[in-house]
Amino acid sequence: MTTVKIINKSKHALPNYETSQSAGMDLRANISEPITLNSLERAIVPTGLFIELTDGYEAQIRPRSGLAAKKGITLLNSPGTIDADYRGEIGVILVNLSKDPFVIEDGERIAQMVIAKYEQIQWQPVDTLSDTERGTGGFGSTGVK
Description:
Helix content is about 5%, strand content about 35%. By secondary structure, the protein is mainly β.
């Protein structure tokens, strides 16, 4: 298990895994008063959390499926990436895709965070790429079933 340093300036407990096999931890809004998102409005919602990731790791900020399915609330830059060298507060860019206003309350679970390993690559410029069965087939080229 990897250890991540965290500063919690919020009024809420640290994010945690809700089940033993959860990949993500819920992030909570840390706000002094409710925020109303009208239809198609967006807002950066603070969490009060600051993290120090180990080199080679990122934090991915993803929508919560329940908010997306039931209320039409999602993230604009999904998944949002927090790089290992970022030391600022984690903010979540929420958007309301429903027709109804949505009120964000302090402490509400607004997104989930997944910590993931990554590798940086080095480009190798070439003139051709290897052939595959799919080739250059793009969107929908592999069929519908």
